[in-house]
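INFO worker-7 received task bundle
INFO bundle size: 2
INFO processing item 0
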Amino acid sequence: MRISFYLIPFLVCLNSMAQNNFSRKIDSCNYDIRKLSIDSDNCNLYNCPKTDEMSVLIALSFFPELSGRKIIFKGKEIKTTLNARPTISSLLFSKKGNRTYVIRINTNKSDSIISLSDIPFNAKIGLFAHEFSHFSDYQSRSLFGIIARGISYSSKKTKAKFEKEIDLNTINRGLGWQLFDWSNYVQNESNATFKYKEFKMNIYLSPEDILKTINALTVQ
């Protein structure tokens, strides 16, 4: 599958900014969770699951602009593994730099829904990084800009454009292999339904597209 034509200018821009520093596997043993917490000012993480704290902190360390932001984790029955958004109250009453963000973690135990606990560590970093890319995007936008982002979800075409831009941002942060492992896990290793896998292939970058993007950036 080729990267969509409308993403080519965006990819060219990424080529000029890429750090060309992709780690194939991130080993938790190479990180000190206490240092990660201090560096990211993570006293503002609320209800982060202890079992996922390391993957969250590693992913967050690639987004320094989110340092100090209040991020709340909530369990909820949703149709996907995670979703992320700013709170309505912080959108309406807080400055851009003081917004509060929520990551909702699926609690539905259906056999066909991917559980966060089943996802390999490297892939989990890619998944959280994708959500933090959303927060980074929201952080740069006004209230009306975020409303426009929300409206884009009403169309499959514009939703796909938005989500693929977020995937490309995640790759550009240096987490391309982690995003690849997440996408590859969904498509080739998980117990997700065919319908869900097809949805993911249509809306997000496929494993093949992610590999092409990594290769395009690393040869620069």
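INFO item 0 finished
INFO processing item 1
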Amino acid sequence: MKLTYNKLAGQSAERINAISDAVFGVAMTLLVLEIKVPEFESHVTEDELVHAFLALMPKFLVYFLSFMTAGIFWAGQSAQFRHIEKSDRNMTWINLLFLLFVSTLPFSTAFLGDHISYKFPVFLYWFNIFLMGLGLYINWAYAKKHDFIAEETRDTVYKPIKKRILTAQTLYFAGALLCFVNSYLSIAVIIAIQLNYAFAFFSPRQK
């Protein structure tokens, strides 16, 4: 049987994992570079140093927000590929597009950090999260449709992972809408959602 390039390309799920870890690592490192050490032209007093440091608190808040975001999506993609055994050219490009939105996270973070009291930066940040979630959802649905998920776990893991993505995106959207009340409230709620997804404070525990 004659094979075409499209049939041969993108067969390695391990390669997707490798580039994903690299992109996430770079994106998470770049986040902290948006927190600039204050510069002073002349001798500085203790009070000025404290004031300058406290002025950076919105930046630290957004940094924490985005580090949690990146960590949760990295864990989400890892959970999928723990059960995905095979790949193809289309799945490779689905994940590359997902990583495209991961790589824009430092920009949306910087934009939010510079204009934290406005609604539009919160919306832009949420849209970045939405596109990342959409990428994970499409990847998981594609893997299920093409039988790339391990047969022994397919029936038990597909629905919980799909539900987690949809529930998280709904909660993120609700949190983003709170920017019409107060942008800090919106960020605080999104962080609370992330902390719950990271540590499962309110998830039912199995006995």
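INFO item 1 finished
INFO post-check item 1: The CA atoms of residues 39 and 161 lie 46 Å apart.
INFO post-check item 1: The mean pLDDT is 90.
INFO worker-7 idle
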